[in-house]
C-alpha cells in the first residue's frame, strides 16, 4: 500500500488521519471556526466551500483561501465543493465547478482537492491532470445519502477512481441497518487486501455507521471525518472522542 505524505502527515500508515470540516457561511464565522478547530490540532482540515455564501465569487474564495491558510499554518488543507447531487449546499454550473477547483489547485494554498467521480469523464481527467501539474493530491469522491450499494458496486467505484488517477479514493454511503454497515466494512477490507494500491476512505454515514468512522485501522480506511464546531455529514463524532478511540484501537490491536 502506497503512503501519501502531505506536509509530513502520512496517509495510509498507522492510525487513520482525522479530518475536520470547515462549514461556516460567512468570512468572519469561517475564520472563528478555523481558530476553534486549530485548538484541537486536526491532522487535516477540509474546507467545504459549498457552504460559503459567496462561493460564486472567485475573488472571495481566493481571499478566504489566503485567510484560512494564514490561520491554519502548516496543517494540510483539503478543498471540497460538494455538489448538490451528492449532499452539498449549492448548485453551480459545470464550467464554474471547473473554474473553482482550478482556482484552488493553482493557488498553491491547498494540498488536496476533492473531485467527484460522477462528473463526466472529460472533466475528471482535466481536473486530475491540473491537480497533478500543480502537485495537489486528488481525493476522488462518491456519496450516496440514500442507501448502501452492494459490496461489488462499492469496490467497482473505488477501483475506477484509482484507474482515473485518484491519490485517495473516497466513498461515503448511508446505512439504514447493520447489514449496510457490514457491507461497507467488508468492501473496505477487500479493497485493502485485493484491489487498491493507494490509501482510501470508506465511510458508512448515519448513526449505525459510526463504527466505520472509528475502526479504519482494522478495516482499511485511512482517514475519518470528525467535528469540532459543526458536522458536515450525519454520524460525525467530536474530534476528542474520535481520537481517544483511534488511540485505543491502535494500542490494543497490535
Ligand atoms: O465526503 C466527505 C465525508 C463526509 O460526507 C462524512 O460522511 O464524514 C463529510 C464531508 O465533509 C466529506 O467531504
UniProtKB/TrEMBL annotation:
Q: Entry's InterPro entries?
A: 3-dehydroquinate_DH_AS (IPR018508), Aldolase_TIM (IPR013785), DHquinase_I (IPR001381), Type-I_3-dehydroquinase (IPR050146)
Catalysed reaction, written as an equation:
3-dehydroquinate = 3-dehydroshikimate + H2O
Q: What class of enzyme is it?
A: lyase
Instruction: Tell me the route in metabolism or biology where this protein functions.
Output: Metabolic intermediate biosynthesis; chorismate biosynthesis; chorismate from D-erythrose 4-phosphate and phosphoenolpyruvate: step 3/7
State the UniProt keywords alphabetically: Amino-acid biosynthesis, Aromatic amino acid biosynthesis, Lyase, Schiff base
The reply on keyword Membrane is no
Q: Which GO terms describe its molecular function?
A: 3-dehydroquinate dehydratase activity
Q: What does this protein do?
A: Involved in the third step of the chorismate pathway, which leads to the biosynthesis of aromatic amino acids. Catalyzes the cis-dehydration of 3-dehydroquinate (DHQ) and introduces the first double bond of the aromatic ring to yield 3-dehydroshikimate.
Fetch the PANTHER family from UniProt. Answer: 3-DEHYDROQUINATE DEHYDRATASE (PTHR43699)
Q: What is this protein called?
A: 3-dehydroquinate dehydratase
The UniProt gene name for this protein comes to aroD
Amino acid at each position: 500500500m502506497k503512503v501519501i505524505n502531505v506536509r509530513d502527515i502520512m496517509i495510509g500508515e498507522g492510525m487513520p488521519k482525522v479530518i475536520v470540516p470547515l462549514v461556516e457561511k460567512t468570512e468572519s464565522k469561517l475564520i472563528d471556526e478555523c481558530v476553534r478547530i486549530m485548538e484541537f490540532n486536526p491532522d487535516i482540515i477540509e474546507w467545504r466551500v459549498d457552504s460559503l455564501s459567496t462561493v460564486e465569487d472567485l475573488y472571495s474564495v481566493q481571499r478566504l483561501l489566503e485567510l484560512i491558510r494564514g490561520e491554519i499554518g502548516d496543517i494540510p488543507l483539503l478543498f471540497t465543493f460538494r455538489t448538490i447531487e451528492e449532499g452539498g449546499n449549492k448548485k453551480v454550473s459545470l464550467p464554474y465547478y471547473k473554474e473553482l477547483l482550478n482556482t484552488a489547485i493553482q493557488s498553491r494554498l491547498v494540498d488536496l482537492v476533492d473531485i467527484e467521480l460522477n462528473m463526466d469523464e472529460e472533466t475528471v481527467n482535466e481536473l486530475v491532470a491540473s491537480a497533478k501539474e500543480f502537485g495537489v493530491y486528488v481525493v476522488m469522491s462518491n456519496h450516496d445519502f440514500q442507501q448502501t450499494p452492494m459490496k461489488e458496486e462499492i469496490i467497482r467505484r473505488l477501483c475506477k477512481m484509482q484507474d482515473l488517477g485518484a491519490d485517495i479514493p473516497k466513498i461515503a454511503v448511508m446505512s439504514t441497518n447493520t447489514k449496510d454497515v457490514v457491507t461497507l466494512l467488508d468492501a473496505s477490507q477487500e479493497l485493502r487486501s485485493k484491489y487498491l494500491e493507494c490509501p482510501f476512505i470508506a465511510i458508512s454515514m448515519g448513526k449505525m455507521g459510526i463504527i466505520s468512522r472509528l475502526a479504519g485501522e482494522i478495516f482499511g480506511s485511512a482517514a475519518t471525518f470528525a467535528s469540532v464546531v459543526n458536522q458536515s455529514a450525519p454520524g460525525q463524532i467530536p474530534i476528542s472522542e474520535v481520537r481517544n478511540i483511534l488511540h485505543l484501537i491502535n494500542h490494543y490491536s497490535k
